[in-house]
Design a protein that fits this description.
- The protein is of the alpha/beta class.
- Helix content is about 20%, strand content about 35%.
- The protein has three helices and six strands.
- The chain has a six-stranded mixed β-sheet with strand order 2-3-1-4-5-6.
- Strand 2 and strand 3 form a beta hairpin.
- The radius of gyration is 16 Å and the shape is globular.
- The protein starts with 8 loop residues before the first strand and ends in a 7-residue tail after the last helix.
């Protein structure tokens, strides 16, 4: 028996380091969804306000207006090497893991039930800086 496919209800979580400037990019994604007319709710989860510690930002977008957090994580963006291995395990079967290409999976780690997308963020940032942007990314 296959699991019923859920449409128009997604939970996105972004795992970063507190103080990295991620709050701004997280708000851009949330506001973009909202301005597209998608009911969306977001919450920043962090154990401390101390720079350098882990933080997670959760976005829920749902066609019926449900914006409370879901237990399941459908899309996870991992940008914290310190929590990468643990965070990667939290993706829902059938979900997507987007991570920095320089991160290595722990030995024996295999999740064939999720889609893994490595992204070379350092190369992308270097390209943007090469275009003349002077603000930190």
């Amino acid at each position: 028996m296959t699991k019923a496919r859920i449409l128009n209800d997604v939970s996105i979580q972004v795992a970063t380091i507190n103080g990295s400037g991620s709050q701004t990019s997280n708000l851009v994604v949330t506001k973009t969804l909202f301005r597209m007319g998608v009911p969306v709710g977001a919450k920043n989860l962090f154990p401390s306000n101390i720079a350098g510690l882990p933080t997670w930002y959760t976005i829920r977008a749902n066609k019926d207006g449900y914006v409370a957090r879901k237990k399941e994580i459908d899309i996870l963006v991992c940008l914290n090497p310190g929590t990468f291995a643990e965070d990667a395990h939290s993706v829902n079967d059938g979900g997507v893991l987007i991570y920095d290409a320089k991160y290595a999976f722990p030995a024996g780690w295999d999740r064939p039930t999720i889609t893994k997308i490595p992204v070379p963020f350092d190369e992308l940032a270097a390209h943007v800086r090469g275009l003349g942007f002077t603000q930190p990314l």
